[in-house]
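Recap from last week: sequence in, structure out.
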Amino acid sequence: MIIIPKKSLGQNFLVDKNIIEKIVNVIEIENKSILEVGPGTGNLTSAIVNKKPKKIFLIEKDHRLISLLKKEFKQTVNIIQSDVLKLDENRVCEDKLIVFGNLPYNISTEILCRWVLNLSNKNLWFSNLILMFQKEVADRILSDYNTSNYGRLSVVANWRLNVKKLFDISPNSFYPKPKVESSLLFFSPKKNFLKLKNPDNLEKITRIFFRHRRKMIKKSFRQIFSEYLKISNKYKINLNLRPQNINFDTYYKLTQEYEKLRG
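Predicted structure tokens:
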């Protein structure tokens, strides 16, 4: 059965066996529960199966690929036909999951932000995320403050997760070849983080600040805080700075401050 990749679903199937082996060897998965997002034609899935995990769950939206995967893996895997952005991850499995994902480029940042902002303060549904992004997006996730790539994505991703880059992946490793390089990132939960009543507030605060990333932050402060001078003095923030000059912790503290003022 020949599957023509759908551009509308951002499908670029990983076909490079050497890269696939590198990915499944990133972490020990024997007897662990695995979730793979966007398994495509099942090339990475086959390598995961060979590592003898306890359970394998696949999330796939494309009914053509589901037919192929069912035929290929039969009862070896549990296939969930769903849009990953609509899935309740907490209901997939009682075990904490190790997640592998060749994420569709068109929704990769939306997936990551949704996962981070939906996390509870107590129980996480995953132990690690091993995710592939367009290299340019990965660079934004990894960037630190005072750099041009630093933005909302960096702040949101680094709130609850430690992030490290594993390696870059050439367009030649995919079919069809994307026009850009990819990067594989490894995420692990932080033990210590500033707790927020509603993580969506972090998204709101960073959206306001980075809407005008080349302008001074004074206007954003005035929009968020009625007593903006009092708040900026409390955290010793120079209102002539730009959004990329404010470090991670300051954004988390400002979100906490915003929540306190709203009871």
